[in-house]
Every structure is written in structure tokens, then in C-alpha cells.
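Sanity check

After download, print the first record. It should look like this:
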Amino acid sequence: MSNMDVAALNQAVKEQSLFVVQMMNEMNKVVVGQREMIEGIVMGLLTGGHILLEGVPGLAKTLTISTLAQTISLHFQRIQFTPDLLPTDLIGTMVFNPKSGEFSAKKGPIFANIVLADEINRAPAKVQSALLEAMAEKQVTIGDQSYKLDHPFLVMATQNPLEQEGTYPLPEAQMDRFMFKINVSYPTKADELEIVNRMGVNDRPTINTVLTKEQLLATIKTVDAIYVDQKVRNYIVDLIMATREPKLYGLGRLEKIIAVGGSPRASLSLIRAAKAHAFLRGRGFATVEDIKSIVYKVLRHRLILTYEAEAENLKQDDVIREVLAAVEVSA
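Expected C-alpha cells:
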């Protein structure tokens, strides 16, 4: 257990979760339904985990992220990724000052707390490389000088799964840096009717700032202190190991289905996300059910499947479902 005792931790979770509920209520003013997407990006915010949203256009991916930024007093930047984007457009460049005769760094839009990378897969490899340094190291190199990014810093990216022309698939190393990949689906009929009724006018609801940076940092500290029992930790490791050595877990048929399993970063993402999920449920401890609730978002972009999987029309979520069914919680 952390330095915070159980009673103090539960009290902190109870108090600070109220701020998060207020934040989500503000988001619900303009975003109808999409609970999984909203909870996912909030969990990313509470853990400093980068989030990738994938869905067809018009599903409020960009709107949700920009609305989240309005509810918190943080520096927010939206960057539209395009094929002609340059690394300097993202991180900044060195500018010559004729008066002093010296070069100085002009910082780019990456220097923010929340960065919305819109249509991230439309930018070329050099831009992705510059973004990867920021995501992995929380720093940016301009010229021969490295600059630390402010805390918290997280990238929330969107991509369209249908548009292939003029896009660049993200490299596996960069995909692994995203804590979650959230598949955003169409709203239900009832939700779409509510969207038409609520948003079919020019007047849009006013979004209020309900969380300060200081409150957010305190909440992040509380989330990090949430208790995770050794049994839950063992379950996390077993799930990830089952994607690497499926035969050991009675999943021999998956040996020809999974080319690359989850990395140690997947295990770390699972435990961090489980804490955030428990926090959103008002608990000071994480359970196996928290793991089961978020494992798809953590693993679906990390598993690389074989041609045999494609021949059987198997997707990552299908494989994760089989792993969940086979792996038991050890005593």
C-alpha cells in the first residue's frame, strides 16, 4: 500500500471524483452518448496516458477532446496533421535574431498540456518521429537543445480507419506508446435523435471550467496511490504472457494467430488504467473486473496478428476475448 492509509485514500477518492463527475457532466452537454470514449479519455487524463481514437468522420472525436480541454484550466493545442506537415511545424525551430546575432528557439504547438493530433495517420514519418520523442520522453529537441514538456502532457489523437489514400500507417513503436486505442462507433437511434434535437440549432451550450491544474495534479497523485492487490497484478501479467506464450495457457491455436503479443508497456498500461477505472467507480482499490473492463482498449493496438488470422477473419478483439476466457485468476 502507498503512504496514504486506506481511510485517507478512500476519502480523497470520494472528494476528487466529484470534480471528475462535474467535468464529465460538462462534456455531456455537447457530446451525446459515447460513454466509453468519454471515460477512456478521462482515464488517459488521470494517468498521463496517450489516447488514440479511431472512427469514421462525424462521431464527435475532435469535439470530445476539445470539450475536455475547456473543462480544465490547461494549455490546449489542436494540430491538424497533413501530408505536407514538417517536424518544425510541430516542435518549433531555431530563429535568428539579427539584433543580437544569435539563434533562439521558437517553440511549436507541441508545448502544451493536451495536444490534439487530428488525423494523426496523415503525417509522414519524420513528423511521427518528432511526435514519438515527445510522447516517449516528455521532451522535445530543437537544434542541439532539449526542452522538457510541461506536466501533465498527453497526446490525444484521432484517425479515420476508412481513408487509406494519403495516409501513413503508424509504426508499431508509436502505437505501443498509446495507452488506449478506443474504437468509436455510431450512436444509437435514441442518441442520434437527441443529437438532432440538442445540436440542430446554432446556439451551443456553454462549457464551464470546473477543474484547475492544481486539482488535476492532486487527483493524478490520488489515482496513482490506488491499491492494487498482488492477485490482480498476477492476473495482469498472466493476460499479457498469454498473448506471448499462448500454449502455456491452453491457447495453442493462437500460436498461429498472434505474431507479436503485448509488451511490458501493456502490463504497465493495464495497471495504471485499472487504477483510473477504479477511481471513476469511487473505489480506492482496483479489482479483476476493472482489468476486464479496460483490457480491450489496452491490447487491441498492440497485438499484431498473422495472415492466418486474416484468413479466418479474426480481429484483435476476438483474440483478446479468447485470452480472457482462458486465463484464470490465480489464488
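If your output differs, re-run the checksum step. Summary of this record's structure: The longest helix spans residues 6-27.
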